[in-house]
Design goal:
about 300 residues; alpha/beta; OB fold (Dihydrolipoamide Acetyltransferase, E2P); Rossmann fold; Ribonucleotide Reductase Protein R1, domain 1; 3 domains; 6-stranded mixed sheet; 5-stranded mixed beta barrel; 15 strands; about 25% helix; about 25% strand
Length: about 300
């Protein structure tokens, strides 16, 4: 088996359409592959960003994915593997869903990903990025005000994205594809905001890894919902909030979950303006969801 394994090529999956995948090798060659049935039996699906070993096809025949190498990180929504820097795109229109953003930040933090917030459409509301920066300052999450339409603020964001496999994500309509076009000088399909429901039209329908100008970025489909995590102990959530760390061990109760318990040091820090109260309130909403999932885990 080891001799056969040495005959495989190695590449990174840059897209998947239906049951076909495109792998790109280090020398820039691309191969069309299919996934062997053994992965289905194992309950594993290839993801964009996966490093794989494969057998190339001959002539016009497709090749086969032989092995999916261990993943550093996994995003289930959007589906992607080995992301090291998550770029969450927010905008004043449609109204930013910061609870959705906090869900994504929580999951990224648990896997050791860096998180950046790109606040798009500053041409519509120049003050919005400042409000976002204030909410996330205590968490140490960098905020980059940009306007994809006017192509302003792009260079600082590009500098922060270099040297990592980035995933551009966020709710539908925030302008991810427009921003990616501006960052990489591309011409991806973009959509408008539906005037009736003030919600974005989802123009990206698959995850694709794009490399250009020293950047490696995944363009992903927008979404509006992210389901609560299953089988997560409620006590684990507080560990995903960097702004809480300075106050751990300082609450009256050792097992304090920072959910309005008496003598909570995190609540006191929020009262003093050290932690943004809206960020703390959204933490409590997520905590309530996780507690319910944990109670119902055997149902």
């Amino acid at each position: 088996m080891s001799e056969r394994r040495e005959s495989f090529l190695q590449g990174t999956l840059i897209r998947g359409i239906g049951s076909f995948y495109t792998a790109k090798t280090e020398d820039g060659r691309c191969y069309t592959l299919r996934c062997k049935k053994k992965f289905r039996r194992m309950g594993i699906s290839p993801l964009t960003g996966d490093d794989v070993l494969f057998t190339p096809g001959e002539a016009e025949e497709h090749g086969w994915i032989e092995e999916i190498l261990p993943r550093k990180t996994v995003c289930l929504r959007p589906p992607a593997a080995n992301v090291t820097r998550l770029v969450i795109v927010l905008a004043p229109v449609p109204e930013a869903d910061l609870l959705l953003a906090d869900r994504m930040i929580s999951r990224a933090t648990a896997q050791g990903m860096d998180v950046l917030l790109a606040v798009n459409k500053t041409d519509l509301d120049p003050s919005f990025s400042g409000r976002i920066a204030e909410e996330y300052r205590a968490a140490g999450i960098p905020v980059f005000p940009v306007s994809a339409r006017e192509k302003t603020g792009l260079e600082p964001l590009k500098a922060a994205m270099r040297g990592a496999l980035c995933c551009l994500t966020g709710q539908s309509g925030a302008g991810k594809s427009t921003l990616l076009n501006a960052l990489l000088d591309l011409n991806l399909e973009t959509g408008d905001i539906s005037r009736k429901i003030a919600r974005g039209k989802n123009t990206t329908r698959r995850t694709e890894l794009i490399e250009r100008d020293g950047l490696k970025v995944m363009d992903t489909a927008g979404f509006s919902l992210l389901e609560p995590e299953k089988q997560m102990e409620p006590e684990k959530l507080r560990e995903r909030y960097p702004e809480f760390r300075a106050y751990e061990g300082k609450c009256r109760f050792r097992e304090c979950l920072h959910d309005r318990e008496p003598g909570c040091a995190v609540q006191e820090a929020s009262d003093r303006g050290m932690i943004h109260p809206d960020r703390l309130e959204r933490y409590r909403l997520l905590l309530a969801e996780i507690r319910e999932e944990w109670r119902d885990r055997y149902d």
